[in-house]
Amino acid sequence: MLELKALSKTYKTGDRALTDISFSVPAGQVVGLIGPSGAGKSSLIRCINRLVEPSSGRIYLGETELTKLSGRALRQARRRIGMIFQEYALVERLTVMENVLSGRLGYVSGWRSFLRRYPQTDIDQAFGLLERVGLGDHYNKRADELSGGQRQRVGIARALEQNPELLLADEPTASLDPKTSRQIMRLIQGVCREMNLPAIINIHDVVLAQNFADRIIGLRAGQVVFDGPPSALSHKALTCIYGAEDWDLVQQSSESQNDEFLFSNAKVLELT
């Protein structure tokens, strides 16, 4: 389980990104983190994995207080946190398999990591994960030969190769089309349920968050202003998070775009 207690972050510029954030995420729960640009979503994700240093507060992963760690202990704790990035963060010239196996770099010796020689158990696990994300036949392709959706699937497999206790995703669908975005969110949701992983997904698409998250946390100006199930994300709640808007029109527009996308695919199928 992940637990945050009174987490705050103020940058050297004086900008306050987070203020007294407190919540916990139990095993297997997928949290959709929503809010306007500048609300502190990415800062929160980066504070949890200590890529950004919190100004105050505490972060626990299981019994371990991450905010007390440094040096080797922090590096070892980061192995327990799988990270999925918006821009995939793959090494383009390496194969799919080599990118997935890079999730084990924190576990192998220096010479093995330099030569990219991994134990057979790691290789077997990587093959299994590639099958799980639908890329079993692509293991020997270079990363730069893949589509955006396929690259993100590699990123998911790499994160899972760490055998993490927590999954963090920073806008994993921002560069993808509507259909692929739904496939990626469905995949993340599925693996979290199968592996009993808690997950926090920073996501801009409210409709995607409602469809695939178990719980929604809304940030505004660095503070939690909503925390509840997707069904409770009313127009009033959305206004509290984002400000005044015609939310009926926004949701209709989102549904219309998705229908248009599916209809376009249907026409293509008819022509072929």
What does this structure look like?
- The chain is an alpha/beta fold.
- It has one domain (about 1-245): P-loop containing nucleotide triphosphate hydrolases (Rossmann fold, 3-Layer(aba) Sandwich), CATH 3.40.50.
- About 40% of the residues lie in helices and about 20% in strands.
- The protein is built from ten helices and ten strands.
- The strands form two sheets. Strands 6-7-8-3-9-10 form a six-stranded mixed β-sheet, sandwiched between helices. A four-stranded antiparallel β-sheet has the order 2-1-4-5, with helices on one face.
- A hairpin with a 5-residue loop joins β1 (about 1-10) and β2.
- The longest helix has 25 residues, at about 245-270.
- The N and C termini lie far apart (about 50 Å).
Percent of residues in beta strands? 15-25%
Radius of gyration: 19 Å
Mean pLDDT: 88
- Adjacency order of strands in the biggest sheet: 6-7-8-3-9-10
Number of strands: 10
Largest sheet: 6 strands, mixed
Number of domains: 1
The total count of helices amounts to: 10
User: What structural category do the secondary elements indicate?
Assistant: alpha/beta
Keywords: ATP-binding, Cell inner membrane, Cell membrane, Membrane, Nucleotide-binding, Translocase, Transport
Main location: membrane
Pfam families: ABC_tran
Protein name: Phosphonate ABC transporter ATP-binding protein
